[in-house]
Amino acid sequence: MSFWVYILKCRDGSYYTGHTEDLDVRLAQHQRGTLSCHTRSRRPVELMWSEEFGRRDEAVASERRIKGWTRAKKEALIARDWERLSFLARNRQDAGRPSTGSGQTDLVVQPAIHTVRPELVEGRSTVSREP
Description:
The structure is a single chain. This protein has one domain: 3-Layer(aba) Sandwich (GIY-YIG endonuclease). It is 30% helix and 16% strand. It is built from 4 helices and 3 strands. A 3-stranded antiparallel β-sheet has the order 2-1-3, sandwiched between helices. It is globular. The model is unreliable at 98-105 and 123-131 (pLDDT under 50).
């Protein structure tokens, strides 16, 4: 059995991190607003990142770790910018500081590639876009 950790981007630009054993079903639940959590009033949501784990305890530990991260660190993970992620992990006090001196971060955040089965979302198709 597989377990997933995922990051969603909400309509208001906030991020939500969670874990599940069925990513398709959980994404559909978030889209329908059937979960009483951060995403309910911030729909639609978009899957930005996910990772599969072999054991639930590994997924839960990863979810908890990521939930404690800064926005900059989550965006580095989403962008798969391992160099920036490593920098942010080492320099926690600099987490909000841009990596270029331009006042802008140099990350390009792309949605994860994952298709939700349309029948799981009542009347909606929620297909993540390719980067």
